[in-house]
Specification:
Helices cover 19% and strands 30% of the residues. The chain is α+β, with helices and mostly antiparallel strands. The radius of gyration is 21 Å and the shape is globular.
Length: 336
């Protein structure tokens, strides 16, 4: 039995694998410590049918950011997809990897185990709920230079102001059993991200190109729902605003950014991903003067936007200074 306290370089299979234990705050594996090569079968159901889900966790100072929310994702997704996961044990293992990583990102992928049933189906038994669990730990800098204090006192990273663009790509509307899940079927986001990258590589008629960081996406019902890799929050001109609010510029000491004025976010009831950071913000503002309101974002709303930010669990809050519409018009958020 060998103590492997260093973070593996590449993917590791957390389950199933040769004997695995937790001792003395170290990840211990038998007969696998000398090899970093992990082989996934071409019959893996995640590869064949996108039968599974994933979550991406930021790590700072050896701790998983928003670990309670990631735990809830493990529980809810395992229930929704009928996968047998010991979420408490899995989170404990992830926390050990986070301690070893120090700072960076953990990406967890869970797929249903191979089935004896031919095709899409899975066995109506315990075996049908068995799963494979894969992890990749990546050392990287997680920006914490600017942080925003939430009403509960916790801190969330906040990125410099950037710009966004409305994309022509659309994401799928899903049945209630799948809507909001971070499933492995992300082809619509892949194509949308490809569109955004093409736009960023082409010269635009404005100075938007140099600061362009995210694209706003519609679903098939023509409602604007989320970004290519993030959820979206917005404010409208007719919504209540504090008299002291005169600019959307974000500063290190601007602790009133989230608590001034009414924020809205689109529903995830038929499309999109119910993101960890989205829920953190909704919960943080739930006891303030202006709790977040779940509200659809329509074409006619876009010219009325006065504030807009995207968010995800790794980058935190990404405030936007402008949004380019499909018409080519630009909505500027510099002042309200």
């Amino acid at each position: 039995m060998t103590d492997t306290t260093s973070v593996p370089n590449g993917w590791v299979c957390l389950y199933p694998q040769v004997s695995r234990l937790i001792e003395d705050n170290s990840v211990i594996e038998e007969d696998r410590a000398t090899s970093q090569t992990v082989t996934m079968s071409l019959d893996n159901r995640g590869l064949a049918y996108a039968d599974g889900f994933f979550t991406t966790m930021g790590v700072i100072d050896g701790l998983i950011l928003w670990s309670d929310y990631h735990y809830q994702r493990l529980v809810s997704h395992a229930e929704a997809l009928q996968l047998n996961i010991n979420s408490e044990e899995l989170l404990a293992v992830l926390q050990l990897y986070a301690q070893q990583l120090g700072q960076g990102m953990l990406k967890l992928v869970v797929t249903r185990a191979a089935q004896n049933v031919r095709g899409y189906g899975y066995e109506p038994s315990t075996n049908g709920s068995d799963c494979e669990i894969w992890l990749k730990a990546m050392a990287m800098r997680v920006s914490t230079a600017l942080q925003l204090s939430l009403p509960d006192g916790s801190l969330v990273p906040i990125q410099p102001n950037a710009s966004a663009i409305c994309l022509s790509s659309q994401i799928a509307c899903l049945p209630p059993s799948l809507a909001g899940l971070k499933s492995l079927n992300r082809l619509d986001n892949v194509l949308a991200s490809g569109e955004l990258q093409r736009i960023k590589s082409e010269p635009l008629a404005s100075n938007l190109a140099s600061t362009l960081s995210e694209g706003l996406l519609r679903d098939m019902s023509w409602q604007w729902v989320e970004g290519t890799m993030s959820n979206v929050f917005y404010q409208l001109a007719e919504a209540p605003l504090s008299e002291s609010k005169t600019t959307s510029s974000i500063h290190k000491d601007d602790e009133d950014y989230l608590t001034t004025g009414q924020w809205y976010t689109p529903s995830m009831a038929q499309s999109g991903v119910t993101g960890v950071m989205r829920q953190v913000i909704i919960d943080a503002l739930s006891t303030t003067q202006y709790p977040v309101i779940i509200r659809s974002l329509q074409d006619e709303d876009l010219p009325k936007l006065t504030q807009l930010f995207f968010c995800n669990a790794l980058r935190g809050i990404m405030p936007m200074s402008s949004l380019m519409l499909l018409s080519g018009d630009v909505v500027d958020f510099e002042s309200v």
